[in-house]
Design goal:
Layout lengths: L7 E5 L2 E5 L5 E7 L2 H13 L4 E5 L7 H5 L6 H27 L16 H24 L19 E6 L5 H11 L3 E6 L1
Antiparallel strand pairs: 1-2, 3-5, 3-6, 4-5
């Protein structure tokens, strides 16, 4: 039998960690409403319970702050990629029109900067978009062929899930936490 590695994204202490781990025991609660989930996350943080991850079918406003996650720095990478695209376009066209192939056409000068604007804009957007996409996929481990386990398929439709690693939170503590926060159901799974 051939072993395959699984990549699991876990959010801990305001940072993204890509872990490869087999047979992780997870206990999780299913909630029907995002407000109940937000209250449960705040309650878990106030009790200093280590949240493995939260799964939602759509972005929940305020969840990042409730989990204590810092703002992503992907927009800074996007600016750097965009600046690289701007420099590539502007310097490339400057070299082509002034050194490599200097042609006077239509009475324009060798270095017609206003005519560089459309291509410079296009390469700025192209470099920023591709750079941010590749950076995001690299950080999250979302390449073709990677299979990430799902705790409950209903989290892609209409349910919300709060998960604890059994190594960090004992099952009895997790069960009592889920019952007091109003979880619809509590399950455990090995991923």
């Amino acid at each position: 039998s051939r072993k395959t590695s699984r990549s699991l994204i876990i959010l801990k202490s305001s940072e993204l960690i890509n872990m490869r781990q087999f047979n992780k025991e997870v206990i999780y609660g299913i909630y029907s409403d995002e407000e109940d989930l937000l209250r449960a996350v705040r309650n878990a943080r106030s009790k200093h319970l280590e949240i493995m991850d939260v799964y939602t079918p759509f972005p929940v406003h305020g969840l990042d702050q409730a989990m204590g996650l810092s703002e992503s720095r992907l927009h800074q990478a996007g600016f750097i990629y965009g600046a690289l695209g701007t420099l590539t376009a502007f310097l490339g066209m400057s070299w082509i029109f002034t050194r490599d192939w200097p042609i006077i056409f239509g009475g324009k000068p060798y270095w017609p900067v206003p005519s560089f604007i459309p291509i410079t804009f296009e390469l700025t957007v192209l470099f920023a978009a591709w750079g941010m996409t590749i950076t995001f996929y690299t950080i999250c481990g979302l390449w073709p062929g990677v299979t990430n386990p799902q705790l409950d398929l209903r989290t892609t439709d209409d349910k919300f899930c709060l998960a604890f690693d059994r190594a960090d939170v004992p099952e009895g503590v997790a069960q009592s936490f889920f019952s007091e926060t109003g979880a619809d159901e509590v399950n455990s799974k090995t991923i």
